[in-house]
Write a sequence for this structure.
């Protein structure tokens, strides 16, 4: 049975807290970036999350992801049961690579990341893609490059970041979405996932294009933070959404700290949402969040 044949997890542990991301406070973002510069501090928080009952992780393919995945792979007895929800790509990684090494240096960095033998295969595929002007071959090559970070881990969903999804959505062309979803299912046996800041529009386009079996991750909170066009449109969509065709994962449920956790999850638990991803760094906040989400998970399982 592939991951694509199984339901997604109700609670996912996210990663924003580790990488200096806080949309409301730059001071908090900087404090966390300094604290989690050490891998041991990152792994300690993951251990708190696992102790709280979480066994599913979302991790972006940024420049620290490989070290984190290596730490998990090094201890299969302790971490082998975990399920993974990668999000790709990390655009800043490529921008920084080009800025530091130039375009040619960046290409060499990608090609030789795993040695000369691996580079030959990548060069053959890349040359074929360029010669045939096939953007989908290039897309698959870049997906494989990003997903190499997660080799050997139990991947359930592969999310495409909203900076790519919403850009492609603006062109109103189904082909990139069809190709991405088909490749993730075929190559990785996982659910294709799309992150967006406009859930109603994306779901409507997927339905129009006949693309089903896609996990959609979007900001969902009671004050409309990072939700376009707004709360009423999201609530109307969720009320009629078929979660077996388009499972919905809520993120930014606390609106970056603007909504207290009990209030936030009282709202989330009343919506037709299949999964929640959240990030926290203290054991108390992790346990509290899990306890606030769990009742809905138990009801859904009954």
């Amino acid at each position: 049975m592939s991951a694509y044949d199984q339901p997604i997890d109700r609670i996912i542990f996210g990663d924003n807290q580790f990488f200096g991301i806080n949309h409301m406070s730059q001071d908090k973002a900087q404090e966390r970036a300094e604290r989690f510069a050490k891998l041991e501090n990152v792994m300690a928080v993951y251990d708190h999350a696992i102790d709280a009952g979480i066994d599913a992780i979302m991790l972006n393919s940024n420049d620290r992801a490989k070290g984190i995945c290596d730490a998990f792979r090094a201890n299969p007895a302790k971490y082998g049961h975990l399920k993974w929800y990668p999000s790709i790509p990390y655009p800043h990684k490529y921008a920084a690579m080009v800025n530091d090494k130039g375009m040619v240096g960046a290409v060499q960095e990608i090609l030789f990341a795993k040695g000369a033998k691996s580079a030959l295969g990548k060069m053959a595929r890349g040359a074929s893609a360029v010669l045939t002007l096939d953007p989908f071959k290039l897309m698959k090559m870049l997906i494989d490059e990003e997903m190499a970070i997660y080799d050997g881990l139990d991947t359930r969903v592969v999310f495409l970041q909203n900076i790519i999804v919403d850009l492609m959505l603006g062109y109103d062309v189904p082909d990139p979405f069809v190709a991405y979803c088909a490749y993730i299912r075929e190559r990785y046996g996982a659910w294709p996932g799309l992150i967006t800041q406009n859930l109603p529009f994306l779901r409507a386009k997927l339905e129009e294009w006949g693309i089903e079996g896609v996990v959609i991750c979007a900001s969902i909170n009671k004050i409309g933070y990072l939700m376009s066009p707004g709360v009423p449109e999201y609530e109307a969509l969720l009320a009629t959404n078929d979660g077996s065709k388009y499972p919905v994962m809520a993120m930014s449920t606390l609106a970056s700290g603007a909504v207290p956790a009990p209030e936030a999850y009282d709202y989330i638990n009343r919506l037709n949402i299949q999964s929640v991803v959240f990030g926290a760094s203290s054991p108390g906040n992790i346990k509290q969040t899990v306890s606030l989400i769990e009742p809905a998970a138990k009801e859904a399982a009954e």
Summary: The two ends are 23 Å apart (CA to CA).
